[in-house]
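Quick log. Single chain, no ligands specified.
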Amino acid sequence: MPDDPSFAIAARPSREYDRAGRLSYEGGTTFRIEPLGGSMPELQAVVDRVLDTGPYRHGDFLELPMVVYLVRDEETGDVFRVSIRNGAVRLHVLPETEAEGLRRFYEQLSEHSDCEWNVEDRVENGSNSS
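-> predicted structure:
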């Protein structure tokens, strides 16, 4: 079994607003959580189970071509984005996100699936529109 990830945040994004008032994030850290080994769970179903059992308040971005949720952990107060893309769950750090909320989401993901997970962090330098 892989070691439990620390979810240490290497870089935080900064909020940017364009002249039309649209929000984007510059830079930041994303954690890619990918199932290991044999059976691949239906990722959206696993993420939905985690969100439905709490302690999360969440909403999805209906206009995007992939699943993206804005998630708030009601116990830690952490807010982050969750997306599903290319066979992996991605946790996108927002400016006030702390490691505890990300770690708790990962633990819930592990509890609601019957597979092991690999976690990689990625520091981003470009703009991420919301």
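The two ends are 35 Å apart (CA to CA).
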